[in-house]
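URGENT: need a sanity check before tomorrow's submission.

F., can you look over the Histidine phosphatase family protein record below? I want to be sure the sequence and structure line up before it goes out.
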Amino acid sequence: MGTLYLVRHGQASFGADDYDQLSARGREQSVRLGEYWRERGLTFDTVFTGTLKRHRQTLEGIVQGLGGLDTPVQAVPGLNEYDSDALLKAIHPMPLPKADTPELFRHHFRLLCDALAQWMGGTISPQGMPDWDTFSGGVHQVLEQVRHQHSGGNVLIVSSGGPISTAVGQVLGTSPEVTIALNMRLRNSAVTEFSTSPKRLMLQTFNTLNHLDTAEHRSWATHA
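Structure tokens as predicted:
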């Protein structure tokens, strides 16, 4: 039996022209996670990431903290995040105000949750996005590869909240509403663990930030 570690990327650049870029805090979170694992002697036999910049940059930070990585990295488009802008435009064609207050931030994510539910239910088809079955199928394909080919070792996946919550939903058999709720709760650089065997994947932990659980690092926890 092995362990699959799914890591949500470090803090990206919410509200900036290019969200797909780690912030300075996001880089610190990623390096700290690698340091935490190095301190505990954790190594990885297989590594997967999505193909987005924030995935690559997060892995680079983890590797820096680990002190190196000898394992080849497989970049898989099926681990990429959904397009939140396309989802929002599918239900709210007019431009939204910049989410620079707590009220506007909450409004932004209420709309996103509504759009996700409609996309998952097949009632909207956001421009440039796959349908829900194709998106979730890409996540399922990676999980099956882990189960059949890498179940005996430590596997690292660096991805985003959408694919990670989808993976948890598939393993637990959750409803779309619960999968969306899980998605909204995932924190930056958080770790979710599955135990792996050729027969099944089993959830062990969800959305943990053990690497930030010190007086020095607790203030580093972020969500967006």
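My own read: The helical segments are 24-39, 53-66, 84-91, 102-121, 132-149, 161-172, 176-185. The longest helix spans residues 102-121. If you see anything odd, call me.
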